[in-house]
Amino acid sequence: MAAPQQPKAKKATDVFALHCLKPDCGGLLAYEVDADNVLYVDLAWTARQDAGVRYFPCPKCSGKNIIEELRTDKGQLKHNVARWEP
Ligand SMILES: [Zn+2]
Predict the structure, then answer these.
(1) Ligand 1 centroid vs 26 CA: distance in angstroms?
(2) What angle do CA 19, 42, 37 make, to 5 degrees?
């Protein structure tokens, strides 16, 4: 009665500093995201709002890093940095 070997569920979340999504900018923003650009600490409430769009302004190029709501498999509400707009 050998129990099947469980694969090691290593829950390692890689966290990165958020960089401006504009490819030739790369400005550093004071937020942390995972590999999918999902906010690690959900600071979406600190984002600026403009006509229903929420964004983090880039300190370097003044562009908008737009954030969108995201529902996880567990029904958790998160936010990811989706795209850049001038
Ligand atoms: Zn930028």
Answers:
(1) 6
(2) 35
